[in-house]
Amino acid sequence: MARPVPPPVAPDTDARPALALVGTVTARIRALRPSLSPTGARIGDAVLAAPAEIVGLTVSELADRTDTSVGSVVRFCQDNLGLKGFHDLKLRLAAETASSADAGVRAPGTPTDTVRAVLAAATAGLEQLPGSLDYAVLAEIVRLLRGAERVLVAGVGTSAPIAADAGYRLRMLGVRTEVLTDPHQQHLAARTLGPRGCCLAISHTGQTQETLTALRAATESGAVTIGVTSYLRSPFTELCRHAVVAGAPERHGLEATASRLVHLAVVDILVALLADDYPTAASTAQQLYTDAITAHRV
């Protein structure tokens, strides 16, 4: 039996943003890297540079290696990574390095190397995605998208094609969606969303000014804000009521490319969940879409 369509829900402006955190420790450090303190950055960089070596170190040895203190290392593990301490970090790194021991790709040199590097980066990002998702947050995002009177999908630059795909797919399911990649139009549309509206924003770095402007305008209008990004701590996540943080690991300079594929997969996941939760509405909208598309075929 189809679930009833819920009424639009206005954002809880007093609540902290809900984030779907990246799953692996190394991916989480990369997501946090731009916002780490100098001390935290030294520790994080040491972990990223040689995760397998860190497994064999004591907390004092890592502190010496990074010119920090034992307390700083422990706080890095607890406050930034949400772990119990350094021992917990080593256990997780051991599991990660064991699972990826054979996943390395040679530095690009020949066309074959380049092809393998691109595909390996994309595969790594997609394989990590299931562990990166907070399923309760995804369910809430689906509820808000279906209940919104109007959804603005915002994204510019390399995120614009993903925004366009999201808008297209949501419209296929009957969600009232508009996609505006022109920054001025995007800003104006965000200002008029109102409490029954929703802004779904996409930004790899979370620092694109045009997208941040749209999010601020949407928030000021009373709309709920949802984001997809690769970096956990950024102005972007601060402006989003709900944010899915997922991206591919840095490898061979292909992080941004692989992250776009991950973000497309996140869009596909949201669309599939919408169709699963509201099958009757999705089926009706899909039939209308099919009829419209058929009219354009020879």
Write a brief caption for the model.
About 55% of the residues lie in helices and about 10% in strands.
Q: Can you describe what's shown?
A:
The chain has 298 residues and is α/β, with parallel strands linked by helices. The protein folds into 2 domains: 78 residues, Arc Repressor Mutant, subunit A; 164 residues, Rossmann fold, CATH 3.40.50. It is 57% helix and 9% strand. The chain contains 14 helices and 6 strands. β2, α9 and β3 form a beta-alpha-beta unit.
Strands side by side in the biggest sheet: 1-6-5-4-2-3
Structural class: alpha/beta
CATH architecture of the largest domain: 3-Layer(aba) Sandwich
- Give Rg in angstroms: 21 Å
Can you count the beta strands? 6
Note the main sheet.
6 strands, parallel
- How much strand? 5-15%
Shape annotation: elongated
SSE topology:
Blueprint: E1 18-20, H1 25-32, H2 38-49, H3 51-55, H4 59-65, H5 70-80, H6 86-99, H7 111-132, H8 135-147, E2 150-154, H9 160-172, E3 177-179, H10 183-191, E4 197-203, H11 209-221, E5 224-229, H12 235-239, E6 242-245, H13 255-277, H14 279-294
Parallel strand pairs: 1-6, 2-3, 2-4, 4-5, 5-6
Question: Keyphrases for this structure?
Answer:
alpha/beta, Arc Repressor Mutant, subunit A, Rossmann fold, 2 domains, six-stranded parallel β-sheet, 6 strands, 9% strand, disordered N terminus
